[in-house]
Amino acid sequence: MTDAQWFIDSARKQYNELAGGVERHFESVATQLRDWLPEGFQPPRPPPPPPRTFTPATYWNHVNRWVSRNTALSAGIFAFVGTGAVLVFIQRSTHVKKRRARKSNNGARTEAVVLAGSPTSPLTTAIAMDLERRGFIVYVITSTKEDEEHLRKQSRADVLPFDLDLIHPDKAEGQMQRFHHFLSRHHHAFDGASAHRLTLAGVILVPDFSTVTVGSIAQLSPEAWATALNAKVLHTITVARHMLPLVTEFKSRILLLTPNVVSSLRPPYRAIESTVSSALGAFAASLSSELSLQGLHACHFKLGNIEIAGSKQKRDEIKRARSMPGTSIRKLHEAIFDALHSSNPSRTWHVGRGSLIYDLIGSWMPSGVVSWTMGLQHAPRNEDQQTPESEDSSSDRSITWEKV
């Protein structure tokens, strides 16, 4: 036997003796305790767990039970609350909607708009200023030096005159080619900036109805008819014709703005205005049909009573005090922007107080009922048949746009 084996056996023997001694000691202590405790004694059992109780019904359970008992009333409440929430959300989202033209990465303006209307007209000026504030480059068609001077007095860097000679077709073609080249070439906002190109967002046609002659058909001269048809109808059609190639290439929109109240009711002594408005409406419908074949859009804005702040005369203020106020021109600005940027704009837009209602009245009510409603049952007694409105055919009448 080796020394290692002897050492291991000796250690195991000592461990066994120690374990046996400890076990005998605990058995002796247990025997003494059993002898000391009285007979029949048992240690107390642990207390039983508390009985399982259910918590009272929550508020949500009460609500569920009430809804189950009042199904019809609950459906009405939910419908009312849901509809109100949707309307509030739509109103807030529409109110806070930002209508701004697109810009390049360096912040330069990239969308151009051609505005065809009298530069001195309050409506044309208001539309041009609003489009410029929204980030468009506005080109206003001018024909005289006075029109250009009027635009320069506005002190707007992005409201520019666009000289288009509609009398000489060859000259007009050259001017359109230069404008096309200007839109197509690369532009730099500043030295070192990345190049960008312009795009034509739309062409806005605003015939000026402020100078339309008012009077009976018997007294309207052929010259008055020719002047109105040439200046309002033919001029508008010619501008649209020259712009159509650019509209087709840049996938732009054409917007036509005409007053709608007089043309819908067709009252007496307004034959020229009713005829011009109807002719432009028919032109807008045909133009929209043709452009739709190419996937393009033409929108006809039928305008009612629209107020333009800062351009009212004393006589207009007196008339307005006796009638309902017009719609703020802000509604027109927002509608024009939406028509330029909407993916699928409507063909017809009614903007301004009385535009839609008078359109419905003129379309569905008999002419006799319309005349009776307007109080036009009898012709004037004076032989010249001049109406009080014939004195109000100045340029200020374009501010309210048809107040009947």
Automatic annotation (TrEMBL):
Pfam families cross-referenced by the UniProt entry: DUF1776
Keyword Membrane carried by entry: yes
Query: Per the record, which residues fall in region Disordered?
Result: 379-404
Looking up Gene3D superfamilies in the UniProt record yields:
NAD(P)-binding Rossmann-like Domain
InterPro entries given for it? DUF1776_fun (IPR013952), NAD(P)-bd_dom_sf (IPR036291)
TM segment ranges: 72-90
Q: Which top-level group of life is the source organism from?
A: Eukaryota
- What are the alphabetically sorted keywords of the record? Membrane, Transmembrane, Transmembrane helix
> What's the protein here called?
DUF1776-domain-containing protein
Organism equals Aureobasidium namibiae CBS 147.97
